[in-house]
Structures are given as structure tokens and as C-alpha cells.
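Figure 6 in text form: structure in, sequence out.
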């Protein structure tokens, strides 16, 4: 664990990607009860890296690990909801489709912990002015993207 944390916090972009992939692999292999004992130590560095500007492959690895961590930790991540929401909404604006899809998947899980959707509404309001929309999508495509966010009753 300390080596992976060091890779995430102080390593190069490639080391951060490798550390996030290692966390994702570990989360797939280890039983939930063991993950819950160290969930805070894993979540903090992942969220910090996700909030910074890195290549899509780094953020994709971090997002994959974060989704797995949300599946394993659930409510134990409640202290990180605000930071995760900010970083995930920022990644919804990314031009790389897999980043947006995984950020959306993570936001869906986050909604289970905290039903505040103010940041998502803010991004929906400014979306028509975003460079991504002008180049790659229409407001109709965005509305389908947003509708996919909300859980069904």
C-alpha cells in the first residue's frame, strides 16, 4: 500500500497510471471487508490525481479504480462526496468518451450516497457553450447523456 500511495502522490504520470491500475487489480481480488479497513488511504490519493490535469489514460485508470472502490466502500466514502463530485463533474466535460462514460458511472454511484445534483445541473446549463458540444455533440445528445445519470425509481 505505501508504495502504491507514493506512486499516486509523487510519481510520474506513468507511475500514477500504473499505481491506479494496481489498486484496481487489488480491489478486484481482495475481499470487501479488507478493503473497508483501508478505504480512506486509497480514496484520498485517487481523488487528488483525478482532480489534476493528466493524460486520458491516467485519468481512465484512476476512474476505473475509483468506481471499484465505490462498489466496495459505499457509504464509507461519504466524507469524500464533495471532492469526488467536483472531480467527476470536471471529467464529464472531457473530450475522451471513455473518461466521460466512467465519470458518469461513478457519479451514479455517488448519487446513492448524496442526492445533491446541483453541480450536474450547473454543467447542463453551461454545456451549450462548451467546446466539446460545438465539435462533437448536440444539446439533444447531452440531454440523453444527463438522463442516463438519474436512477430509475
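Output sequence:
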Amino acid at each position: 500500500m505505501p508504495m502504491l500511495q507514493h506512486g499516486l502522490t509523487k510519481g510520474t504520470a506513468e507511475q500514477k497510471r500504473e499505481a491506479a491500475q494496481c489498486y484496481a487489480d487489488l480491489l478486484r481480488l481482495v475481499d470487501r471487508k479488507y478493503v473497508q479497513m483501508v478505504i480512506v488511504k486509497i480514496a484520498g490519493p485517487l481523488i487528488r490525481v483525478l482532480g489534476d490535469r493528466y493524460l486520458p489514460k491516467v485519468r481512465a485508470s484512476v476512474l476505473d479504480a475509483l468506481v471499484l472502490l465505490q462498489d466496495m466502500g459505499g457509504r464509507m466514502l461519504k466524507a469524500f462526496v464533495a471532492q469526488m463530485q467536483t472531480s467527476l463533474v470536471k471529467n464529464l466535460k472531457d473530450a475522451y468518451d471513455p473518461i466521460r462514460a466512467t465519470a458518469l458511472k461513478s457519479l451514479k454511484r455517488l448519487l446513492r450516497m448524496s442526492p445533491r445534483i446541483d453541480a450536474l445541473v450547473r454543467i447542463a446549463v453551461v454545456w451549450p457553450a462548451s467546446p466539446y458540444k460545438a465539435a462533437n455533440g448536440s444539446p439533444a445528445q447531452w440531454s440523453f447523456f444527463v438522463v442516463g445519470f438519474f436512477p430509475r425509481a
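Caption detail: The first helix runs from residue 2 to 10.
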